[in-house]
Design goal:
alpha/beta, D-Maltodextrin-Binding Protein, domain 2, 2 domains, 10-stranded mixed beta sheet, 11 helices, globular
Length: about 300
């Protein structure tokens, strides 16, 4: 009987230890789940193309004000650097001008075990800006290509928000140069505001920036920029000899030829804060913010186009 009692005590001891370990694991997993962010609370990091900073700042500001327990930390970078973050586990979302390709999707699925999703939520454009004293403010696409390759009849220095790795440079190389080389005279500013500052001081330069930096004519900062530089007219995509600017109506119709998309890529396996922010951008309030920033909403097509009354 004594031996039997010892055996039963050993079994009971093992069972108690096992039970304690199971509870410990359950408690640990429960804590991890409770720490997961939701659309209404938590903190996440995202990477965004620097050329979209004004409108992304506004989106984050409104989202956080409506959901005080959330914090979205945005790192603004050149587009290529954003896509390097595609494989960084701590970066939950990327906002850029293109979707991921199949190779990037496969690599993410293999390395992070995440199936990414993406959506075009707005249409943007690249604005061409010149110094107010510049005699040249109307350009054909042929003119722009000659300026960018150093073959234009007048010497105009192209200025970008970086000479490589940015979405603006990629668009210019892919859509305008199409295999030709960018002139060695091209200059790189540190940011879009750097492009504006340089053009404001240099009559012999021509700048290329995202319209979200200079297209909102109700924003005091952007109105101050328009006092320092002038937006150039580009030959219409549809009507030869007609010159149009990167206004909302022309972006919507693609009459303005330098149009591109604003795309988010989400990396979440559950409906967390990234999902909430993505849904917000594609929902009514987010789309209204794009519209008020003079970009073109892409989800809800019943938004009207806002006329722009500009005094130059």
């Amino acid at each position: 009987m004594k031996v039997k009692w010892k055996l039963n005590s050993g079994i009971i001891f093992v069972l108690l230890i096992s039970f304690a370990l199971m509870n410990s694991c359950k408690s640990k997993n429960g804590n991890q789940n409770s720490k997961k962010d939701t659309p209404w609370q938590g903190t996440i990091n995202i990477s965004a193309d620097e050329s979209f900073k004004p409108v992304v700042d506004e989106l984050v500001k409104v989202y956080e004000s409506n959901r005080p327990k959330t914090k979205i930390n945005v790192q603004y970078k050149p587009e290529a650097a954003c896509f390097q973050d595609f494989f960084v586990d701590s970066i939950r979302m990327i906002i850029a001008t293109r979707r991921y390709n199949e190779a990037e999707k496969e690599q993410m699925s293999d390395s992070l075990n995440v199936a990414p999703s993406s959506l075009v939520v707005a249409r943007d454009a690249i604005a061409v800006i010149v110094n107010p004293s510049s005699p040249d403010s109307l350009f054909t696409l042929k003119d722009l290509k000659e300026i960018l390759t150093g073959k234009f009849k007048k010497k105009l220095i192209p200025v970008f928000d970086g000479v490589k790795a940015t979405s603006t440079v990629r668009f210019i190389i892919d859509s305008l140069l199409k295999g030709d080389s960018l002139t060695s005279d091209a200059m790189a500013a540190r940011s879009s505001t750097g492009v504006i500052d340089y053009i404001a001081k240099t009559p012999g330069a021509i700048g290329f920036i995202g319209i979200s930096w200079i297209g909102n004519h109700e924003d005091p900062n952007q109105l101050s920029y328009l006092k320092e530089v002038r937006m150039a007219g580009i030959e219409s995509h549809y009507v030869p000899g007609q010159y149009v600017k990167a206004y909302q109506e022309n972006i919507y119709s693609k009459n303005y030829p330098l149009v591109r998309d604003l795309v988010y890529t989400l990396k979440e396996n559950y409906q967390g804060l990234g999902f909430g922010f993505a849904t917000f951008m594609s929902g009514e309030i987010g789309q209204l913010i794009f519209r008020r920033a003079y970009l073109v909403p892409q989800i809800l097509r019943n938004f009207g186009i806002r006329p722009a009354n500009i005094k130059e």
